Each structure stands twice: as C-alpha cells, then as structure tokens.
Amino acid sequence: MLSKAATMEIPINRNGDTGTLPEDDSLEQVAKLQWSLDEKDLQQVMVSGPNLNETSIVSGGYGGTAEGIIPTSSIKGSSMQDSRSSSSMTAEEASRGVAVEKLDFMKQWGLNTYKCTKQMIAERFGRGSRTVDLELEAQIEVLRDTKRKYENVLRLARALTNHLYSMVQTQHALGDTFTDLSLKSPELRDEFGYNAETQKLLCKNGETLLGAINFFVSSINTLVNKTMEDTLMTIKMYEAARLEFDAYRADLEELSVGPRDVVNMARIDTAQEQYQIHKDKYERLRSDVTIKLNFLDENKVKVMHKQLLLFHNAISAYFAGNQQQLEQTLKQFNIKLRPPGADKPSWLEEP
C-alpha cells in the first residue's frame, strides 16, 4: 500500500487542495477504525484488569481448538466439592464406627443376659449345677443375719434417743415452771425451788447422756450402713460373677458333648476363652469377699467393744445419779458435748 501511494501522482483540484483517491480514503478509514478499537481494548484492560475467575488454561499448543480450554473456576469448584465430600465421608465413617461399637455391645450384653437367665432358671428348677463354696457361703449368711440384728439395735437406739430427748425437753420446761412458781408463791418457795433444782440437774445429766447415746448411734450407723453395706455390695458382685461363670461353664460343657467338626471346634474355642475370663473374674471376687469379711469381723469387734462399754457406763451413771462418773465417761471416750445454741452462727458469721 505504501509503495503504491508513493508512485502515484497527487492531483490538485481547482481550489488548490490536494485530492485523495478512493482507495486511499478507504485505507485510511480502515486504519483509523483499527486504531480506535485497539485503544478501547487497551483502556478496558488497564481499567478493569483481567478476571482471574474467568482465566483459562489451554491444554493444547498455539492455535489449538476450544476443546482444550479448561476454565479455572471449574477446577476450584471441583476441589471444594472433593474436600466437602471427603469430610462428610470421614464424619459418616466415625458415626458408623460408633454405631457398630454400640451394636456389638448390645449384642454381647443380650447374649450374656440370656445365658445368665437360662442358668438361673435351671438352678431354680434343679436342672443345673452351681458352684458352691460352703465355708464362704456360711460366712456370708452370718454377715446378713448380723446386719439384720444390728439394724434392729440401731432402730431401738434411735427410738431411745428420741424418747430421752423428749424427756429432757419436758424436764427443762418443768424446771422453768417450778422456778417461776417459786418466785410467785412465797409460801411454797422452798418446795418449788428444790424441785426446780432437781429438774435442772436431771436435764443436765440427760443432755450428757444424749451426747453419749448419739455417739453410740452414729458409730453403729457407720458400721451397719457403710462398712457392712460395702462388703455386701462386693458379695453381690461375687454372686453375679458366680452365676456368669456357671452359665459359661454349662455352655462349654454342652458344646464339648457335640460333634467335633470345624464349626463346632471354633465355637468350643470361643467358649473356652469366655469360660476362662469369667473364671478369673469369679476367683478374683471370691478372694475380695474373703478379705473383706475377715476385715469386717476384726473391725466389728473393735467398734462394738468400745461402743458397748460406752453405752453401759453412760446408762449406769445416769440412772445412778452420778454426774461425775457420767462426765468422766464422756471424757474417756473423747466425746465433746455441744453447748446449747452451738449450731446457731454468731452475729459475726451472720450475713
């Protein structure tokens, strides 16, 4: 185009202006249009910049087809979906594992309950054998009988405490009434005064006796409802272990009588393992029960020796009217009486 324009003559019109050829006008218009389009594209790129979400990755070489262009937005979305799906799969696997564990536990519990119930029914109707330790069973029966008797002693001692407390309160009120009447009745002042002093002395001795009996009741309550009860809880665990042991023993004996095929041998091996586990548990709890029974007997003798001596000395001194001996009994057993109103907080402790 430039070579052609350089060799052509430039005509001059009659106004003195240079004329333009039709081809030159069209070429100039095309160049201007192309320049304006390029300038607009450049301004748009400078202002807005490229959109990273709309950029593409060309999988082929230069001039490749549009089939090789992969939008980056699709890659980002697919990676997010993969991470979400993996996290959801992990949560589902965890919940599935917990559900399977609970199901196995319920299955084992149901099987164990079935075997123990079957063994219990067989023992009730005399069709099943049970493991018996005659010496231990006799000690357990003695303990249960002793606990029943000690509970009766505790009930009666509490009843005595309630009656004695009511009597002390009555004596206190009667002494106050005699004192008031001695002040208002001059002709019977001495008689009311003697009786008032006697009731106050009896009231004081009754409060001392109440302290001794309350200590006796507290010690018996600890022995019966804590020490003996703890031993009986261990005995209950021992009896449950004995029932489980006999149930799995009977199951193993039943399987041992059957045929010696592959399936039955696998069942026998499993039953043998369960039998050994429950046998160890039974023997361990039997040893624990034996130790606790021996310890309980020693502790019971020490506690009751001290408490019965306290009860005897306190009752004897009270009904003998020996105030000095009654107070000495409390000192001997380190019993401290609470003064009246000791439970009430002082004015410094009040909110």
From TrEMBL:
It comes from the Eukaryota. It is found in: Golgi apparatus membrane; Golgi apparatus, trans-Golgi network. One of its GO terms (molecular function) is protein domain specific binding. Residues 1-23, 72-93 are annotated as: Disordered. It holds the Pfam family Arfaptin. Keywords: Golgi apparatus, Membrane, Phosphoprotein. GO terms for biological process: intracellular protein transport; regulation of Arp2/3 complex-mediated actin nucleation. Residues 131-331 form the AH domain. The keyword Ion transport does not apply. The keyword Endoplasmic reticulum does not apply. InterPro entries: AH/BAR_dom_sf, AH_dom, Arfaptin_fam. This is Arfaptin-2b isoform X3. It comes from Salvelinus namaycush. The lineage of its organism: Eukaryota, Metazoa, Chordata, Craniata, Vertebrata.
